[in-house]
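// run 5 | inverse folding | seed 20
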């Protein structure tokens, strides 16, 4: 069985404890972070019986699948999302399996970004290394209002962190999200406009879908306070194209902390978000953490072994199995 694992940017998958589960199989781990053409992807995946995808790093569409006649299985780490054309896989008799997600690492990273951005630690540390002492003045979190759009697993963890830091929580989202937040003792915003206007820190924690794509607009952002912070560790496409930079340049919000980008990986040091003086940018580290990797890849490898062992599990398109493919 030939298994291909693309986009291991850090070259760490072989170091995971769960990797030993694939012992005895023909496993090829690819590391190149550069975007690849259709022809390059087809060449890299040629003769693969199974692909193990790292979240959404590799786009799988009908044109690519047509170049992969040997492919029988795509084992997704975490849940299937818009990067993978599930209908095209089904039409070609390719089984897709998926695993679990975890809110722990993304929520922790979001909080690290909030703390660092508010206390302005990166510029202070950079200046200190250059021989300068106390060059700026940060802000404490206590008393500031944390706005959470999307009160799911990550949003709920952030709300608990906020309570430990004496931050009132303001929630916006669906009716069910706002009701759940109120049941937990938090305040639901009276309106979308009030949410952006009242929060000192806004964290966007929505799943990307056609309904949420470009959901956050320039008008939303420019309603924020001059010293407010916008945090996005979810998906860049949740914000309208160009809106964040335009809003920052108008002075509302005053700061941003981002972990996600419309085109990834970002390899250009001249990227406008990396160069902006009031943006704290990290290279999509939200889920990139050892415990999470063991969970994601452990599930994915188990799904590979189960499929080729004749007992498929966690199948996202069971109609392929029903058709006898």
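// decoded
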């Amino acid at each position: 069985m030939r298994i291909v694992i693309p986009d291991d940017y850090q070259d760490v998958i072989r170091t995971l404890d769960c990797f030993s589960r694939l012992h005895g199989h023909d496993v090829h781990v690819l590391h190149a972070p550069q975007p690849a053409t259709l022809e390059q992807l087809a060449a890299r995946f040629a003769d693969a019986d199974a692909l193990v995808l790292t979240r959404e790093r590799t786009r799988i569409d009908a044109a690519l699948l047509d170049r992969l006649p040997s492919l029988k299985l795509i084992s997704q780490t975490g849940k299937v999302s818009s990067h993978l054309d599930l209908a095209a896989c089904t039409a070609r008799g390719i089984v897709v399996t998926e695993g679990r997600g975890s809110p722990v690492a993304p929520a922790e990273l979001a909080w690290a970004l909030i703390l660092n951005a508010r206390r302005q630690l990166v510029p202070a540390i950079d200046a200190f290394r250059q021989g300068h002492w106390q060059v700026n003045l940060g802000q404490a979190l206590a008393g500031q209002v944390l706005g959470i759009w999307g009160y799911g697993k990550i949003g709920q963890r952030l709300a608990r962190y906020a309570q430990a830091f004496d931050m009132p929580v303001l929630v916006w989202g669906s009716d069910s999200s706002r009701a759940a937040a109120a049941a937990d003792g938090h305040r639901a915003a009276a309106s979308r406009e009030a949410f952006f206007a009242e929060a000192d820190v806004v964290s966007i924690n929505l799943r990307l879908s056609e309904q949420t794509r470009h959901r956050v607009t320039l008008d939303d952002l420019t309603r924020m306070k001059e010293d407010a912070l916008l945090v996005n560790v979810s998906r860049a496409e949740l914000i309208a194209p160009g809106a964040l930079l335009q809003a920052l340049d108008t002075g509302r919000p005053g700061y941003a902390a981002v972990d996600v980008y419309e085109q990834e990986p970002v390899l250009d040091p001249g990227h406008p978000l990396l160069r902006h003086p009031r943006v704290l940018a990290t290279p999509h580290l939200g889920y990139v953490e050892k415990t999470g990797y063991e969970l994601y890849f452990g599930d994915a490898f188990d799904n590979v072994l189960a499929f080729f062992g004749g007992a498929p599990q966690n199948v996202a398109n069971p109609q392929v199995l029903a058709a006898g493919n």
